[in-house]
Amino acid sequence: MFVQEEKIFAGKVLKVHICTMEGTEWLEEVTEDTTIEKLKEKCLKHYVHGSLEDPKTLTHHKLIHAATERILTESKTVAEENLKDKDCLLLIKKRPPPAPPKMADISSEEKKKQENKAPDKEAILKATANLSTRNTDRTVTQHNIRDFQTELRKILVSLIEVAQKLLALNPDAVELFKKANAMLDEDEEDRVDETALQQLTEMGFPESRAVKALRLNHMSVTQAMEWLIEHVDDPMVDTPLPGQDTPGAAAAAAPAPAPTPSATALGARARLSSQASLEEAKQDELTEIFKRIRRKREFRPDSRAVIALMEMGFDEKEVIDALRVNNNQQDAACEWLLGDRKPTPEDLDKGIDTNSPLFQAILENPVVQLGLTNPKTLLAFEDMLENPLNSTQWMNDPETGPVMLQISRIFQTLNRT
Fold first, then answer.
1. pLDDT score of 247
2. How is 169-233 classified by DSSP, letter by letter?
């Protein structure tokens, strides 16, 4: 007797229960080595009663194991899917993908979005043009914050002028400012981050160059290292920063006092002339010291911010102006360059109206009056003008802190009234 080869090697025959969404049920016999795809084809032939004319019918259906609620993989066999005798399978038609929206639907959807979109500033101004102005005091808090930052700088500019005049009247003014200049030198030395300096010197950079690079790059090791690499062949790389000359240089450069003539030869008028010459020499020396102090507090733009803003197409001078106005904040400087550019760099050097009630109240405060006779207060004001971020340092200083606190209190009090 002839027996087909597939019957000899066929696997175990299972009877599985097939159900459809319409409620049709039947038993389907299948061997363990039959693929799920073949089983699905047999089920569909039984379901549609004949051959599958539309090939999409096969791909648009799936078999689900009812007990485990999992979709059976078509490439696997019955045994691989671990189907058992009398298991129940669901024959389900797959959901068709959503049809692409029609152009009319898209237009109506976009129109609906536009209707629900919040109005812009121009639309608000147009809609409210005929309305009377009310509740204008709602933005007072925001303006007060900005006014304080602007007015504080103006206050400092005017107080520096007053402090210079007061200290110049002191008989020991030259010695006081020489001491202040030395104090500033010590302060500059103290500002070098020892850890950052050690990192750069361990890389092989000379200590003097590393110190210069750190001061130019706000103690950033990464930026300082980039600066050192960029300037390795620069003949001016070892030139000291402005204001780092010796304290006695200005004194040597200043005109020497005129020799005192004999009292018998010139008399009283000669003595007066000699005294005037001494006073003039003293003023020249004070002026030179003031200039040196100002140079040491000179604004130094962030090199990375300068490069980034210049790459946007801005001129180097206007980039430095923007960074100076915005305390080296790159994002704020960019907004300033793109906006109305207020305040201007010239506004930074303008003082407050000396006849204003605010300035008069500050000058009448005893703590401020005493502080203005201290050279360290002048240094603090100069530093905060060019480096506003250092304000916290001076607020915590036992000598300058009380002065800054009184200025802040007076401003807040008068600003509220």
1. 39
2. TSTTHHHHHHHHHHHHHHHHHHTS-HHHHHHHHHTT--HHHHHHHHHHTTT-HHHHHHHHHHTTT
What pLDDT is stored for residue 262 in this prediction? 46
pLDDT along the chain (417 residues), means of 10: 50 85 86 88 77 69 87 89 89 76 66 70 83 60 50 84 80 65 53 79 88 78 83 81 47 44 47 53 56 57 85 88 82 89 79 87 92 84 75 84 90 81
Distance (Å, whole) CA 250 – CA 293: 11
d(CA 415, CA 408): 10
Is residue 263 helix, strand or coil? helix
Given this model, what pLDDT does residue 241 score? 65
Q: How far apart are CA 291 and CA 79, in angstroms?
A: 94
Angstrom CA distances, 415 to 146, 358, 410, stand at: 12, 9, 8
**Rounded to 5°, angle at Cα 266 from 262 and 268:** 105
Residue with tokens 């159900």: 19
- Supply the pTM of this predicted model: 0.40
Question: Do residues 309 and 319 lie in contact, with contact meaning Cβ atoms separated by under 8 Å?
Answer: yes
- Structure tokens given for 165: 């005049």
DSSP-H helix ranges across 49-193: 56-59, 103-116, 121-127, 140-168, 173-190
Question: For residues 219 and 387, what is the distance between their CA atoms, to the nearest angstrom?
Answer: 14
Strand partners, 35: 77
Q: At CB < 8 A and 24+ separation, what contacts does 408-415 make? A: 410/358, 410/361, 410/362, 410/365, 411/148, 411/151, 411/152, 411/155, 411/358, 412/148, 414/357, 414/358, 414/361, 415/144, 415/147, 415/148
CB atoms within 10 A of CB 247: 16
* Both tokens assigned to 44: 């569909």
| Residue 41 CB coordination number (10 Å) | 16
Distance, in Å, from the CA atom of 278 to the CA atom of 174, rounded to the nearest integer, reads 12
